[in-house]
């Protein structure tokens, strides 16, 4: 099992973007910017993969295979999207929601810098699972409460079982951010990730990073294949 990046780092990107890659992920030579690990937590079928795909690729896919282990994607967020002074690269870890993976998932956020906890507004049990993941984060990570986003997904469907007020009140109690999103329509998806990136970038300004590291694309591809194949 490969581990996510340990602590905050800088990454120096080399070469040109791969064919078909989202413009925000295009590589630029000799650019150095902060990199931050961001795990996505939540129950099965709450829409974690759909949210990540919408943010990375700007589209909605109707059918997804259930995530096995952890899937890994990245996106570079520019200052124009966040209002921050620096760019930041988000490493998004889309974790499996199945019970059998719960024991290994915490290793992916033990040293993460932020986290997203997703529930389905129309299935109240997923909201209770979100509270469980919040407790795990609190006990097993160094993530500050204000770097966690509680997300009620599928807002495009009317009359959810978890009201906006209930979700927001819980997030405020935990000191976390709160968003209601729709991967289908794109509502609040970019603002969710941009807000996290903004807070990360501002925190990096206050806390200087270590020396830059050079991480080749082939290394990241190998890491992604490993995580996607975790069983």
TrEMBL record:
SUPFAM superfamilies: P-loop containing nucleoside triphosphate hydrolases. Gene3D superfamilies: P-loop containing nucleotide triphosphate hydrolases. Keywords: Nucleotide-binding. Signal peptide: none annotated. InterPro entries: P-loop_NTPase, Small_GTP-bd, Small_GTPase. One of its GO terms (molecular function) is GTPase activity. It holds the Pfam family Ras. Residues 1-29 are annotated as: Disordered. PROSITE patterns: RAB, RAS, RHO. Belongs to the small GTPase superfamily. Rab family. This is ADP ribosylation factor. The lineage of its organism: Eukaryota, Metazoa, Ecdysozoa, Nematoda, Chromadorea.
């Amino acid at each position: 099992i490969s581990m996510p990046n340990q602590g905050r780092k800088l990454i120096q990107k080399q070469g040109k973007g791969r064919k078909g890659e989202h413009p925000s992920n295009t590589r630029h030579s000799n650019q150095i910017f902060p990199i931050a690990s961001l795990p996505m937590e939540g129950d099965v079928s709450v829409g974690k993969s759909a949210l990540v795909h919408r943010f990375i690729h700007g589209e909605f896919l109707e059918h997804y295979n259930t995530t096995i282990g952890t899937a890994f994607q990245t996106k570079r967020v520019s200052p124009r999207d966040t209002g921050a002074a620096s760019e930041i690269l988000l490493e998004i870890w889309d974790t499996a929601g199945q019970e059998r993976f719960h024991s290994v998932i915490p290793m992916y956020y033990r040293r993460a810098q932020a986290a997203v906890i997703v529930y389905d507004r129309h299935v109240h049990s997923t909201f209770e699972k979100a509270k469980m993941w919040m407790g795990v984060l609190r006990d097993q990570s160094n993530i500050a409460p204000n770097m966690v986003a509680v997300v009620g997904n599928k807002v495009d469907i009317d009359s959810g079982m978890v009201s906006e007020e209930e979700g927001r009140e819980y997030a405020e109690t935990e000191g976390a951010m709160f968003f209601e999103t729709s991967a289908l329509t794109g509502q609040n998806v970019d603002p969710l990730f941009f807000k996290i990136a903004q807070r990360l970038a501002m925190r990096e300004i206050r806390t200087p990073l270590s020396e830059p590291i050079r991480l080749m694309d082939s290394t990241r591809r190998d890491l992604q294949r490993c995580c996607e194949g975790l069983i």
